[in-house]
Amino acid sequence: MSAGVLVTAPANFEIAVSENAAYASSITIGAAGNFGPVNVLIRFRSGVAIGTYSGQVVCSSAGAANANLNLPAANVLPAGPIPGGQTAQRTTSGVGYLEYLPADHATSGKRYPLLVYLHGAGDKGNGTTDIWRVARMGPALQVQNGHRMNFMVNGQEETFIVVSPQLTTSLADFNSLLGPFVSQMFTKHANIIDRSRVYLTGISMGGAGTWVGAATNPSWYAAVAPVCGATWPGSTQTCQIAAGNVPVWAHHGIADNIIQIIHSREWVRLINGCASAPNPAAQIREYPGLPHDISIPAYATDNAINPVNLYQWLLRFRKPSVVNWNGSAWSPLPPTAADNVVLNGNYPGVDSVNRGFVANALNVATGVSVNIMNTHTIAVNNRLENAGTIVVASGGSFLQSAASTIGAFTGTFTLQRQNNNAAANNSAVNYNLWSAPVMGQTVANLPGAAQWKYDFNPSNLSWRAFTSGAMMAGRGYSAAQLTPQFVASFTGRPNNGNVSIAVATSTVASTTGNNLLGNPYPSALDLRAFFADPDNNELNGSAWFFFNPATGQGGASYQVANELTGIRYVPTGRGFFVRANTAGTVIFKNQHRASGNNQMFNREEQLDFERLVLDFRAPDGSSDRTYLGLGKAFSVGFDPRYDAQKAANLSALDISLLWDNAQWTTLALPNEGLPLSLPVVVQVKQSGKYWLNAPQLSDKASRPVWLEDRATGKFYDLRAASDYCLALNSGRYDDRFFLRFDQGADRGAAGNALHVYSYKNQVYIRAASMVGELAQVTIYDLMGRLVLKTGDVKLGPVFQQIDAHAVGTDGIYVVRVQTSHEITEQRVYLSW
Predict the structure, then answer these.
(1) pLDDT of 152-168, one tens digit each?
(2) What is the pTM for the complete model shown?
């Protein structure tokens, strides 16, 4: 076979060899006219020179004389580095390919669209020294010619990763090579490929590979562009493309006499005629008068021929890739958040690898069992379909994001929830607060006997029997059972999306919340997001959890969750109290849900302010806790999401902070202008020894904090994180213990410091080292105005009490103590 060119004048010229010429063993040069030497350089369109001829062509009439140029053998063709940024690579299975990566791929942190290019039959080779053949045309040629494969689409610049495998002469087509090759690219470049934008194109034999590849793995490709594809369509393959909704833009020359245009036309016709017609419909770009080789117009990177070029057209489309689980392995790779996951086999929850995942969509096939074990989360960003069995073990989590919906749901969904802190024997009734994480739950789904089931009346803060009826999503309920470590099961369609609940105010005073709500989802609820939502402004920003300890001086206690305690998450199936400042409707949303954090005990968050935690512990192991936060953003008034009043402790073991005539379990105050003393209220049911310590004290080195015991005159340095033993008689102590922040308190144990502090509207002064010395005491407000002045006060080791009730307004004041040789000023908080 040969190709020819007609010389019409003496010249130095080049012949650009197309794919057809690659089949030739010689090129014929004919001369029209009688003239002298002709110098010829022959090169592929890629720019690689493959042969030269220099000689004289003489003839007396057109075509009367010819000179034949024999093409060099393939094994001596140059195979050096391919210019333009491509590199020659080989897969682990031995497939040679050209690879182009965006220049910033290693540092940008971005994911890029992947374009797979399949060459024509004339570009087969050995994958090493012949690899340059792949760059004769198509995207590989554009890269070699210096194009960076970046295109503007919808105002956004996108850059392709381009991979171009070479088929060996031993393989007739790409059918067996393509799937494994693309899968290996997914693995090799898992961190930079956007698997929702994977595209396939090819010319001639590569066009045939494009058709077949799209039919074989339609879920992999966001769009395909076959160019003069050399294969006849079959109804099965065309409808596989249609069912996979793969956008198709075929290209073909009308004058193609090697692979006639009817091939591409028929592919497009049959695809669009399938029962599941694709959207958009398959289309074809026909090039009038052009032959088989249409690589130049089809793969042009500008818009001169096609107003939207092939690359821009591809980038219009995205498709979440489909990842399959067959019961033992993922294909092609473990899922990412952009993938649609199909579980075709039982999904294990106990092995070391396949525990949880995030998916764009999830489809559980008929008969498949999915087990989500403790600490594991399966999250779905979009559509859920379930024809199998999903079981979420206690501590596991099933999460749906804000846009997630539920489609076909013929299977079952069960969430298990272990009770909270049940007693270790069968002799006690163990109450817990519950909520329904799935639809269709009734009172029968709550554990225990009917006489131990209640809901809560927010109008008068009373419990009422809940012996029949449906559980409302987002509402909390109380139920009890004798069995320790009881696990309740809730089976139904999982709650998803917005859940609205009415909240009410009450005229009945309460130190806890006045509404009993419940986490409505089969995943953890993030209280920080829930309280911060503008739709929930009715709430004051704290939640109260009911605890049923196995030991202790009584039955139960409440734990507060807010920004100060750092307790942030509500496990699934759990009820909790909130306080409504105004009546209205609050809304639970998918945006409030959280991955993980679904164990029975909530972890505490890292905080950005100073925090003091006081633990109060009884000999039997029961304990109570109070929190003090110090920060610039806090006020002396009520701080939503930080301040919470102390709930009455049913166990009678109680510790709280006294401020503004109320007891607080969490109290936030400004860290500047801090009162130098703060009363600590404790209550015990039985006489005996008790222990107090500060297990959490941020910024210990910079802020001194002591616990003062007025009964003994002792000061306990809380920075030491030690247990301090207190001998207490049964009862309540309102004015014995004080938190002290003044620098003089570190000498208090020796009795040598001047101590000034307040309690309610009284000021107390003591100075053991100044026995009998007289002092004048004056009190100023923070504006420097005098509000109270006393006569002489005699100092000594006994506290002198100064009545300041005449000041009359709650707030921080400055107490000035002046003796004959020194003046001391300290800030105190006075309240009425």
Answers:
(1) 998 999 999 999 999 99
(2) 0.69
